[in-house]
Structures are given as C-alpha cells and as structure tokens.
Amino acid sequence: MPNDAEHEKRALRADLRERRSLLSEAQRESAALAIGERLDALVDSLGAHSISCFLSTMNEPGTRDFVTRAVQRGIRVLLPITRADGLLDWAVATDDDEIAEGLFGLPEPTGEVLGPIAVNDVDLMIVPAAAVDRTGMRMGWGRGYFDKTIGSMEKCPPVYAVIYDSEILDSLPREVHDQPVNGVVTPSQTLILSHPRR
C-alpha cells in the first residue's frame, strides 16, 4: 500500500511535470544557457577534473551544452545508463557522442559501458530532480536510481541537483531511502544547502 509520503510525492510530481511542460522553447533555452554558465563556474570552484552529469530530456533544465563544453575542456564526464535492476551503469562522454533511447525513453550515451562503481571516482555529481527543499532533501521522479547510487557510495563527492528556480521548496515529503543533495543549480543561482559527506 502506498504511504502518505508516496501519495504526496505523486501529486507533487504531476504538478511539477505540468509546470515544466508549459515553459516555452525560449524560456528553456534561456534557462539552459544560464544553468550551463553556473555549472561551468561550479566545476571551476571545486577544481573538479572528473564529474558525472545527466543528459537532459526536453522537459528538464538543459545540461547537454554544458556536457559538451566540459568534455572539450578536458574534464572527464560520466553519463548515466539505466539498468533494469535499478542501478546505474556509466559511459564516458565524448565529443561526438551519439545518443540512444534508454529505459523509460531517457537519453543515454552509446559508448563503452562501465559498471556502477565507476562513479566512485568523480569529484562532483550533477543529478536531475523534480524539486529540492531548503534542507537539501531531493525528490526525484520516482524510480530511485540516484537515491540508490548516492546512498551506496563510500565517499560521496558534492552532489548538486539541477532544477528551475520555482522548484526550490520549503519542505518535501520524505521517505527512508531519500538522499539529500549538497546544493542546487538553477538559472538564477547556485545554492549550497548542506555540507558533503566524507
């Protein structure tokens, strides 16, 4: 039986998905540009040489140009590949990345597949989210891939979620498996919410 938190999350996700779908192409492009600049600055401020980042779908804040730029700057970028068992494999992004449709219709790289532990070497994780609250609690889209990944890491690097400004909420329904993030990157700000676990 779904619990109260699950019901709340489901309703909230539907609302957030609807809000994202109403954004115009110009709004999406402008947000992607601003987010890309903030992500570049975040990578520089952390001195990150190896990062993981998701490939944005049409309704997500854009990360693709940022990934291309990072690769061109010589940063090693790991892109997630969903598996049927709920874990994530990874592939190293390249300049000429071909994108395929993975599980759930998500955009995924087609390069050599590395296992789930490949992400243990990154200096920064950039993850998708539906919303994040002011304590750093992240709500994803309900499949648990990033919660499992973050929760299983021995030494977790800083984790930042990429969202729109309106998706920073005062509080979120919380379940046992939910993992917090250290900060968020939105079109207007980079916000640190909690300190990295080491």
From TrEMBL:
Catalytic activity: (6S)-5-formyl-5,6,7,8-tetrahydrofolate + ATP = (6R)-5,10-methenyltetrahydrofolate + ADP + phosphate
Source organism of the structure: Microbacterium oxydans
NCBIfam families tied to this protein: MTHFS_bact
Residues noted as binding substrate in the record, renumbered to the chain: 55, 60
Gene3D superfamilies, A to Z: NagB/RpiA/CoA transferase-like
Domain of life the protein comes from: Bacteria
Keywords: ATP-binding, Ligase, Magnesium, Metal-binding, Nucleotide-binding
Record's protein name: 5-formyltetrahydrofolate cyclo-ligase
